[in-house]
Design brief:
The protein is built from six helices and 13 strands. It is of the alpha+beta class and about 280 residues long. The strands form three sheets. Strands 1, 2, 7, 8, 10 and 13 form a six-stranded antiparallel β-sheet that branches. A five-stranded antiparallel β-sheet has the order 3-4-5-6-9. A two-stranded antiparallel sheet has the order 11-12.
Length: about 280
């Protein structure tokens, strides 16, 4: 009897611990499931803020490519009508990714569309300076920043005027040769609220291919002998140089296939966005 009671007293604590452990695991699983649902919901809301489709610009072909690295993304792109035959372009990348970056991106998108009605006739540089001042004063603190490429396209004259706030230079494929639109640059939004930005321009020729992207494309990684190896702008240029006169969708697919081959199909570690624009024949 004494031995039986001893067994009972010895087994009870371990049984209780096992039950408690099982309960803790169940609660943890439920908490993780709820967190997962919330992150998915944030991602769905954020994707609804991206344009459902891009406007058709006479004389140009332009599909977007967008792939977040998590449920939510810090990348943003948009193309909006301005005045007469002018169109506004913006591609932005919030530092980091996931929900915090998505929140900043959402704020920026809201501010952009609030400022747009009074800014349709302003140059891209003035618009970017206004965005930087407002974002820096309230939303971009504690090291947060946003890189932005913004441009105005006169579709009739095919004149593209652009400005950059720390964003990777877009790639321009012209007659088989690829170059970067890097004539101007500036600080990302959030670094200096008084920063100013200069503009540069280029006249697009028939069959020119313009690729505006976020650094999630060129900074895609794979293991290397001396550490992580980046896809890089040079690889991107080589891929684009093979596009020739292909449709923009085929060019975008070339890039995504090259990225998949480079990373061996691994999920991206950063958000990836591209706008691929082809100027048609006159």
């Amino acid at each position: 009897m004494i031995e039986f009671e001893s067994v009972i007293h010895m087994s009870a604590p371990s049984t209780t611990i096992a039950l408690q452990s099982g309960g803790a695991e169940a609660r943890l699983a439920m908490a993780l499931e709820e967190l997962d649902r919330e992150r998915r919901a944030v991602g769905e809301i954020q994707r609804l803020l991206l344009p459902a489709s891009l406007p058709e610009i006479p004389g140009f072909e332009m599909p977007p490519y967008y792939r977040p690295s998590a449920f939510a993304s810090g990348d943003y792109y948009d193309v909006v009508p301005l005045i007469d035959d002018h169109w506004g372009f913006i591609v932005a990348d919030v530092a980091g990714h996931g929900t915090p970056a998505a929140v900043i991106m959402t704020v920026m998108r809201t501010l952009l569309h609030a400022e747009l009605p009074s800014s349709r006739s302003k140059p891209a540089s003035a618009f970017l300076e206004r965005m930087n001042a407002v974002m820096s004063a309230t939303y971009l603190r504690h090291g947060l920043f946003v890189t932005v490429w913004a441009a105005m396209l006169n579709s009739r004259a095919r004149r593209l005027t652009y400005v950059s706030a720390g964003h990777p230079p877009p790639r321009l494929l012209r007659r088989g040769s690829v170059s970067g639109l890097d004539a101007v640059g500036g600080l990302p939004l959030g670094i200096d609220p008084t920063a100013t930005y200069e503009e540069a321009g280029v006249t697009l020729e028939p069959e020119d291919l313009l690729v505006v992207y976020t650094d999630g494309i060129t900074e895609s990684m794979r293991p290397g002998i001396d550490g992580p190896e980046l896809f890089g702008a040079q690889r991107l240029d080589r891929v684009l140089s093979e596009c020739g006169s292909e449709r923009t969708s085929a060019c975008a697919e070339r890039v995504t296939q090259a990225l998949a081959a480079f990373t061996n199909g691994a999920a991206p570690t950063d958000d990836q966005t591209m706008l691929v624009m082809r100027a048609g024949r006159y």
